[in-house]
Design a protein that fits this description.
The protein is an alpha/beta fold. It contains twelve helices and ten strands. It has helices at residues 59-75, 95-108, 128-136, 165-178, 196-204, 244-256, 267-276, 327-331, 334-339, 348-351, 356-359, 381-399; strands at 24-28, 80-86, 114-121, 139-144, 183-189, 210-214, 265-266, 293-296, 301-303, 317-321.
Length: 404
Amino acid sequence: MSRKATPQPPPRADGGRPAVPFGQFVVKVHGRCNLACRYCYLYEGPDHTWRARPAAAAPAVLDRAADRIAEHAAAHGLRDVALVLHGGEPLLAGAGRLAAFADRVRDLVPGGCAVHTTVQTNATLLTDARAATLARHGIRIGISLDGGLAAHNTRRTDRAGRPSWPAASRGARLLADRHPGAYAGILTVVDPRTDPIEMYESLLALHPPALDLLLPHGNWTNPPPGLPAAGAAPTGPGAGRPTPYGDWLTTVFDRWWPAARRETRVRLFEECVALLLGLPAATESLGLDPVNAIVVETDGTIEQVDSLKSAYDTAAATGLDIFRHTFDDALRHPGVAARQAGADALAATCRACPLLTVCGGGHYAHRYRADNGFTNPSVYCADLERLVRHIAARLSDATAGAHR
């Protein structure tokens, strides 16, 4: 592989549009988890491909993945690459192995290309020594929790049914207290059955620099908790459906937005504000920006993002692998092209919606319906409309004085 490859135009995507090069590479360094969360879409959902894969990525897989990432960065003249070390539970692979892989990618990419590395962990295996190793090698640490209290995390147990909260909370506090520079933030899946203010403030107590509030991976065929399945194809924005997730999120927004100081970043809210102002925002959940993430599994298989696995078995499959194919080959895959097609890939009701450029049809996986695929509004359509209109109103109130 040449490290001085001349930048080439991206291959053509569906409809003749130039494909957007991948900028985020999710590498499954370990494909198993030390927890057995009862709601996990990855291990308890419809996709079973993980069962046939090795538990951990072999050195040859990681070496080839690093080569392919560097090859893609060189071919497209990338100035930044996001490397996400994922699982399963990636710390099962060992902090030293994660550090060595991150260093190899950083060494191989062309000069002038920055590699921003993050590991996403449940925090139960975090120790001071492991956190120090990751920090020393420029790896930031993101934590997945269901909330900041033991009561929020009762469904996150180990395989013997024991609660994970004591170890997870210890890991989170260790990171905040001793390695704040390596603390990327907390990822939490929204549960409308919880008290939104209590949940938000309990997470603040763990001092995250950022929060990712994610909607559960549900769809029209298998709706998320609290939302009914559609009896017929949705015909318009919201279609008169309840909005438990939108209500929960707007309550948290109203606690976050007027705070005397910015206590933490909430990416969903910041991205919504940016999109309402006409600014670009990089998110799978909102907006029309092309998705530029790709996954390398433990056996070297190239797959689309994991969230698709919540739809049906093999939904993320591409038929490609890093030993025989380049990431440019993955850009040509019809599923990847659909994720980069913007409004053209959306249902007619979404294309006609006044919130199109902000909502963007919602998360791709949340549009799935067994009888017609992904050409539907999000199962969260009503919730997203509730949230976007609420934030737009608050933004309008905040700027009203500037127009007088």
